[in-house]
Give the backbone structure.
Amino acid sequence: MKGTPAAPRCGFSNMAVQILNFHGASFASRDVLSSEELRAGIKTFTSWPTVPQVFIDGEFIGGCDILRQMHDDGSLAKELEKVK
């Protein structure tokens, strides 16, 4: 994400944090703005061009748009329940 959960530095990162907090999910984050190598590396690793990037139990889910869609259709709650 850009920034930290306590201080997101873009609207998409903020939305991802708000959605995960809504679901009571425990999550870790890395600030891609602190390292250009990290920022470029995560995009290469996932072949996904945007940040934040969300992983559940090590599996890449997508970005903020996918997370919001999953929240809206109820599938995020189901996925998070599997890893509790």
